[in-house]
Each structure stands twice: as structure tokens, then as C-alpha cells.
Hints:
The chain has helices spanning 59-70, 106-114, 123-136, 156-159, 166-171, 180-194, 248-256, 260-269, 272-277, 283-291, 295-319, 329-334, 336-343, 355-358, 383-395, and strands spanning 2-8, 12-19, 24-32, 40-45, 48-53, 86-91, 102-103, 142-146, 202-208, 212-218, 221-225, 324-328, 365-366, 375-378. By secondary structure, the chain is α/β, with parallel strands linked by helices. Helix 1 (59-70) crosses helix 3, helix 10 (283-291) crosses helix 11 and helix 11 crosses helix 13. The record marks 179, 240 as: Transition state stabilizer. InterPro entries: Ac/propionate_kinase, Aliphatic_acid_kin_short-chain, Aliphatic_acid_kinase_CS, ATPase_NBD.
Amino acid sequence: MGILVINSGSSSIKYQLFNMDDESVLAKGLVERIGIEGSRLEQEVNGEEIEIEQEIADHSVGMKLVIDTLTDTETGVISDVEEIDAVGHRVVHGGEYFDGSVVVDDDVKEKIEECAKLAPLHNPANLMGIEVCEELIPNAPQVVTFDTAFHQSIPKESYMYALPYEFYEKHRVRRYGFHGTSHKFVAQRVAEEMGQPVEDLKIITCHLGNGASVTAVKNGKAYDTSMGLTPLEGLVMGTRCGDIDPAAVPFIMEKEDLSPQEMDQLMNNKSGLLGVSGVSSDMRDVEDAASDGNKRAQLALDMFTNRVKKYIGSYTAEMNGVDAIVFTAGIGENGSEVREASCSELDYLGVKIDADKNNVRGKTQEISTTDSKVNVYVIPTNEELVIARDTKELIK
């Protein structure tokens, strides 16, 4: 069974084609700079890469290029588009409508469009990808997996904000959480590694990348998460500020004469590691600058790991214990120093990191000592595989 997984952004299309008989990846690629000068497609098959540079005016042209590349007689991996049995899509926001993946119909598309008010940068592009695939691969059912779905199990006392209740009733202002597909995948994987049912465990999953979030997973379900109504809340991130005093927002707006849109851009695009360090939003650049004695870069690093540590502590309290802590995503999978610093001073939990085991990048490995009371793991995330599995299950 061939399943194509699509992540459609505002100017890009990421894709992977799976053979679900053995869950192998037949091809994966990226179409970038759609509608912008210098657009191109990059595809990898069995470690071999090809690159096609051409004008890609819109997502229809980009998606057609993907299909043509996958079916090309020389570089392709399938002979005909009919070998794609279904298409699975990543959609960022499903609001309160969806607690799992669903087959696309008109009602689903209407709800994705309605939720665009909560994710204006993402949902419209995600929906565009669905509609283009419906046009170009008409015989393949379309399935969507939502970043927010896994977090729909969070209890009301954790997802509600202490604002006047009418704002929830009128506008559904609440915590939704994101990266749900990733948190779900690594929680299930760490249970497999530990040889225990995920339903019997209390797990804290740390998805640390340019966007970052922490989730408490209790008995296999999300119990709390750091991102909120939008992905801005929670941890210090590449360019996002994370948690701040809400009163700081009108204060800065007044002092700097900023509009709401300018303030939103400041918090989302000019803050975080970039804003504090003044160096970069990339953790590697910030670490290099800190090693060279840049004090602001060191401060940014300390703030990043301190915030992770605070969430680990608070979620341990919420769940009345923790069995495993998991690090995933770009920083979590590759940043040994970040992992070590995030777990430092968790002695009261009995967390002990093995320095030799922690010297690992991008592969599944337990990094805690044999006498650590909490298992600590690095587990590479695989959101695309989760989407492919859900798609396969739904079209059966």
C-alpha cells in the first residue's frame, strides 16, 4: 500500500511516500520557494538526491512536479499515480472538533477553514494542499492528522485560562497545544523501549526545536502541555518569547508605540534565543557564541534550559510522579549539552544522566544511569510515519 504524506506550508510542500507493507520510505522531498524566485524541488531516494530548479507559481504546479518526479521513468519510484492509495496531510489546528485523524469530506474542510482564525499562517496552506491533492490524485482518499488532536484529552482545569468565561464560550479561547503527533509518537516509542504499556506510565516528552513544547503524558494520554491558544506560549524558542507577564505586552506597546500586529511579530519572530542572544535563532550558533565568551548567548542558553526544567518539575507535580523523560526534535535529538543542563538539579527526582550515553545524536538511546530513578531517553520523532499509519488505518 502506497501512502503519500504531505505537509503543505505557505510557500513549501514537504512530502514522503511510504510503502506501508513494511513502512519503508520510498522517497522524500521538499518543494520550496513556491511563488518566489529560485523555487525548486529536492528529492531523496535510497540516499541519492536529485534537484530540479524551475518556476513554481503555486501549489498546484508544485504538487504536479512532485507527482511527475515520483513517477518519472528514470528517477521515480512508482510507475503511475494510481499506485498512491491514499494521501495523509498534516494540519496544524483542529480546534475542539477533532481528537484524532479523520477522512476528509466537505464538513472536515469547513472546520479546518473555521479553525484558520486560530492558525492563520498554517491552516489555509494546509487546506490548499488538501484541495490540490484532491484535484491531482482524485482516486486516493485524503486523511488529515491534526497537531492539536492528541491534546484534546487534557482536563478542563488545565486547558482553560482564568479569563472571563464568556471568551471561551464566544471565541473558544483556551489552551490547545501543538506538536501533538510528535509527542504521541515518542511517548509510545519510549514505552516500547521500556517494555511496558504506555497506559501504565507517566511520561514527560520534550519536543525541542526552533519551535519547542513539553507535554505531560499520563496513562497514554496528554495531561498538560506548554503551548497554548497559539504556539507562542511556553518554552523559550528560536524566535518566540514563550511565557511572559501578559502586562508586559501593553507596557511595551505603549513605550515603543507598537501596533498589535507589530507586537505580535516582535514576540513571535524577534524574541527567544534570537532576541536574548542577539546572535541567531539557531541553537548551534548560540552555543558557539557562548563558547566564545558571549554572555548574552550564554544567558539565552541558560534561559532555554531553565524553562525546560521548570516544566519538567511542574508536570511531575501534576502527574504525581514521572517514569520517563524523553528528548526529541532537532535540539532534543542532537543537543547533548541542552539535555544535560535541562536534567541538572533534578536530583530530588532521582534523575541521573550518564555522560557517555548522552554523547549521542539522532538515534534512540537511554541516556540515564542504571541507578537513575527516572528513565531518560533520546528518541527521534517521526510525525510522517504517524500520519501514514493513521491514514492506512482509516482507509481500511
